[in-house]
Automatic annotation (TrEMBL):
Pathway: Cell wall biogenesis; peptidoglycan biosynthesis. Keywords: ATP-binding, Cell cycle, Cell division, Cell shape, Cell wall biogenesis/degradation, Cytoplasm, Ligase, Nucleotide-binding, Peptidoglycan synthesis. Gene3D superfamilies: Mur ligase, C-terminal domain (3.90.190.20), Mur-like, catalytic domain (3.40.1190.10), NAD(P)-binding Rossmann-like Domain (3.40.50.720). Its main location: cytoplasm. Belongs to the MurCDEF family. This is UDP-N-acetylmuramoylalanine--D-glutamate ligase.
Length: 448
């Protein structure tokens, strides 16, 4: 298993012992790098801290004293820890570099690195790229924000195995040398402002993925996204565009019936099983990656004709009493929910709500053409109901939690309707993650 070689830092602080922190700490330990751990959870409740403490690693738990920075020349932080955290603020004041564990993972990668980011569509695109490369016997590894910690997974990479890595803005903000051989930039809209504080910081964090790419590298980008287009010409990287708006001489495009690569028809839209135009964008991006790896049209078509998507992303759950239930719990912002709504022509009963991040919801109602009723719950329920009233949408129910919302949606629906959980909000008011939220929805649907 790979370890860090010729590592330039002498004493590292691992800040936060969630999945990424544990993986980073294990890598540092196995590599013989001096480090200590600081985590908020008290020691007696903290199994990872106990584990590393038994190995002889210094652990400071239960609080975050700035003294843990003494002698430290690198901080590896959990991506979710905000930059106004007192340790991060003090590290920056002392000019101590702050990175996430993907920076450590980058030190280990020998073969081609494919990095994917965007406000929406990252997980679907990453999974689809992985499946196509696997179909073509490229033996890929999947890692990153998709549930597999990068600095753990890439330790097993051998030779020229491609690494397919999904990356969030939280991970990318704290990178220094990270540079993929092939990057995929899907879209950039306003999101996570509670973390980034400004739109500029969010955009710049996303662009960290491509800013160090050179003429030896490739950037695959969404030509239809105005923000992406504004920034892709700043570097010297080679580019391949994709678009839903007509034929491209070079790149991947769609004319309403066929998907083309470099003007050559590749697959009919009706042969692609993923629903929705937003998913078609993900398909085009994945085809561009596949073609960069010389994957045959046959291998691409094989995967696209059977790939139904990923859990919690417009996932079909069940048909019950003539209603079709879909779990789109990963839709944690308004744009994601709007794209989900665009995927159906049938009447929709929408379940939305969750953490109140301070934003308004008027934009959500611009895509309510097929919505017949909205059931809203959680911290943001009042704001969503208020936005509905402002946009002359009167069919709204307010309930306390997701279980009530699912039952209410079923009660107000009719045969032939779509019942769609697509919250337009983060899950953290009532759940630990969007996965937990989606799993509860699935469980309630099966018990109806």
């Amino acid at each position: 298993m790979k370890t860090l070689q010729n590592f330039q830092y002498n004493h590292v602080l691992v800040l936060g012992l969630a999945k990424s922190g544990k993986a980073a700490a294990q890598l540092l330990y196995d590599s013989g790098v001096s480090f200590l751990i600081n985590d908020q959870k008290p020691f007696l409740e903290n199994e990872p801290a106990q584990y590393f403490n038994n190995l002889g690693v210094k652990t400071v738990t239960g609080h975050h004293p700035v003294e843990v920075l003494e002698g430290v020349d690198l901080v590896v932080k959990n991506p979710g820890i905000p930059y106004h955290h007192n340790i991060i603020q003090e590290a920056e004041r002392l000019n101590i570099p702050v990175v996430t564990e993907v920076e450590l993972a980058y030190e280990l990668i020998d073969g081609p690195l494919i990095a994917i980011t965007g406000t929406n569509g990252k997980t679907t695109t990453t999974s689809l790229i992985y499946e196509i490369l696997k179909e073509a016997n490229k033996n890929p590894i999947i890692a990153g924000n998709i549930g597999q910690v990068a600095s753990q997974v890439v330790r097993q990479q051998e030779g020229e195995q491609p690494v397919v890595m999904e990356l969030s803005s939280f991970q990318l903000k704290a990178t220094q040398n990270f540079k993929p051989d092939l990057s995929v930039l899907l879209n950039i809209t306003e999101a996570h402002l509670d973390y980034h504080q400004t739109r500029e910081d969010y955009v710049n964090s996303k662009l960290n993925m491509i800013k160090r790419q050179t003429t030896d590298d490739l950037l695959i980008y969404n030509q239809d996204d105005s923000t992406v287009n504004r920034y892709i010409n700043e570097g010297e990287v080679k580019t391949t565009p994709f678009t839903l708006k007509g034929l491209l001489k070079e790149g991947v495009s769609y004319d309403g019936q066929w998907v083309y690569y470099n003007q050559k028809p590749l697959i009919k839209r009706k042969s692609i099983v993923l629903p929705g135009l937003h998913n078609l964008e993900n398909v085009l991006a994945s085809i561009a990656v596949a073609k960069a790896f010389q994957v045959s049209d046959e291998h691409i078509r094989n995967v696209l004709s059977r790939f139904i998507g990923v859990k919690h992303r417009l996932q079909f759950v069940k048909n019950k009493a003539g209603r079709s239930f879909y779990n789109d719990s990963k839709a944690t912002n308004i744009l994601a929910t709007r794209k989900a709504l665009q995927s159906f022509d049938q009447p929709i009963v929408l379940i939305a709500g969750g953490l109140d991040r301070g934003n308004e919801f008027d934009e959500l109602f611009e895509q309510f053409e097929h919505v017949k009723h909205c059931v809203t719950y959680g911290q943001s329920a009042g704001k969503i109901a208020k936005a509905a009233q402002s946009n002359q949408f009167t069919e709204v129910s307010i309930v306390d939690d997701l279980e009530q919302a699912t039952k209410q949606a079923f009660e107000v629906s009719d045969e032939g309707d779509i019942i769609l959980l697509s919250p337009a909000c983060a899950s953290w008011d009532q759940f630990k993650s969007f996965e937990g939220r989606g799993d509860m929805f699935i469980d309630v649907v099966h018990k109806l």
